[in-house]
Amino acid sequence: MSFSHLGLSDKVLAAVAATGYKTPTPIQDQAIPHVLARRDVLGIAQTGTGKTAAFTLPMLTLLEQGRARARMPRTLILEPTRELAAQVDESFAKYGANHKLNVALLIGGVSFDDQDFKLTRGVDVLIATPGRLLDHFERGRLLLTGVELLVIDEADRMLDMGFIPDIERICKLVPFTRQTLFFTATMPTEIQRITEQFLHNPVRVEVARPATTLATTAQFLIKSGRQDFDKRDTLRRLIRAAEGLKNAIIFCNRKRDVATLYRSLKRHGFSVQALHGDMDQPARMTALDQFRKGEATLLVASDVAARGLDIVDVSHIYNFDVPLHPDDYVHRIGRTGRAGRSGIAITLVCGPKDAIAVAAIEKLIGRTIPYMAAPDGVGSASEGDAAAARPNGGRRHGERHAHGHRGRGGPARQPQGQPASVTRIEDARTRRTPQQSPARSRSDEADAAHLPAFLLRPLPVKA
Ligand code: AMP
Fold it and tell me: CA-CA to 82 of 20 to 30 Å: which in 134, 161, 176, 291?
């Protein structure tokens, strides 16, 4: 099956051929003919399924008729985050290479004036985050009465982020007769209600989670000490010992922890960038860009910031925190193992609360995640912190980057229910001497980095 039977225009087909896609993905196959027939579509699909092209390609075909008027966008795409909006913008640039359409991006963190200038020229496709769109609307810089087609993408994430009232407001500002394409990965009651209210006799198109992600990603748990410095130590050792680590995303549950972990990894000589909601737009774009280009090996991120990002070919995912929602686990590990490539996802588990969260994840994905054998020294005394205190910036002799070092212990499967690492970690922790405790109890590498290395070195203790 090729793209040619879907009803797309020649210009669009030429752009698709230029990107190298041979066959439509299931969501493209099922949704595109309905979009072209001007039907409302309820797409239940997540990122990685090809859903962006499922709405971008038919929109480009439809937009070939008609022209844009000043301040009255013809189509509107709502995205929950700036990065996703920017990604859709890139898709229009790629698939719309043969069109002369005006595409504008209204996202926070970018100057109002530049955005306003674009609006005055007339916009065929307006891609926006809800808050910034309403800001422009309230300033009287934008009329939504010309919108012929509205796309609401990642609706369940909009719900998580508290954007549903904004979405409802926007839906009432665009003409009743517009066509609506609505995408969500899950169908909580609130989303169900919105679809009933704002979609007119929609075609429901549902595609399974990309099975490839779960099938091609090796997933492991590793037991870690509960304190943040223990977790950071475990993570560093895992990264240093990782086989075939090309690049990795490290997920934290809180923005604050993203920033702390980023600073810590940087201090330890890793090539790292951070991505969280409190960073301004240029900083987020730079971080993402550097990671995509391979200029930074590691990316520390929060769920919201990283949701739906299309970063092809990430070799490793580390869950520094067990995600609170099982769905987030699937989204996180969906960043690796893409397009049939193999990937590794490792989750740090430290305490009964984490174990409960892991049980919920295992229930959702329908499989048990095994504990992996700890790389040498995981959880042992403060080698990592001591390294940071070394005059050469924490690098061991000859160590340039984390990924340059290969330890002996790559992830190895443990028989289920035998978390070998648990014993090793706890043994190592109890081996700490009273002399070490004061330094460690400061619980921050910032402090450790200012102590002489000999104070942080593990001391042998006779049994
Ligand atoms: P999305 O779910 O829209 O984020 O797309 C996920 C990835 O799949 C992106 O890197 C797209 O470039 C890629 N993609 C989309 N459609 C196809 C297709 N028909 N064949 C191969 N790759 C595709």
Answer: 176
- Rounded (5°) CA angle 382-384-386: 70
Cβ–ligand 1 contact at 310 (below 6 Å): yes
Q: How far is the CA of 410 from the centre of ligand 1 (A)?
A: 31
> How many angstroms separate the CA atoms of 185 and 176, rounded?
25
C-beta of 52 in contact with ligand 1 (< 6 A): yes
10 Å CB burial of residue 214 (0-12, 13-18, 19+) is middle
Which residues are paired to 223 by β-bridges? 349
Please choose, from the candidates 295, 305, 303, 340, the residue with its C-alpha nearest in 3D space to the C-alpha of residue 319.
303
Structural domains of the chain, ranges and CATH numbers in brackets: 3-206 (3.40.50.300), 217-378 (3.40.50.300)
Helices marked H in 376-452 — which ranges? 383-389, 420-430, 436-441, 445-448
Dihedral (Cα; 278, 284, 288, 291), 10-degree rounding: -80
CA 46/CA 228 separation, integer angstroms: 32
Give the separation between CA 316 and CA 265, rounded to whole angstroms.
Answer: 16
User: Mean pLDDT across the chain, nearest whole number?
Assistant: 80
Q: In Å, what is the CA distance from 260 to each residue of 64, 107, 285, 378, 440? A: 49, 26, 20, 20, 17
Q: Is 273 in contact with 74 (CB distance < 8 Å)? A: no
The phi, psi pair for 222, rounded to 5°, reads -140, 135
pLDDT beneath 70, residues of the chain: 208-215, 305-306, 308, 310, 312, 337-341, 376-463
Q: What is the CA radius of gyration of the chain?
A: 24
Instruction: Give the C-alpha separation, 317 to 219, whole Å.
Output: 9
Per-residue model confidence (pLDDT) at position 389: 30
> Within a 10 A sphere around the Cβ of 445, how many other Cβ atoms?
26
CA 312 – ligand 1 centroid, Å? 10
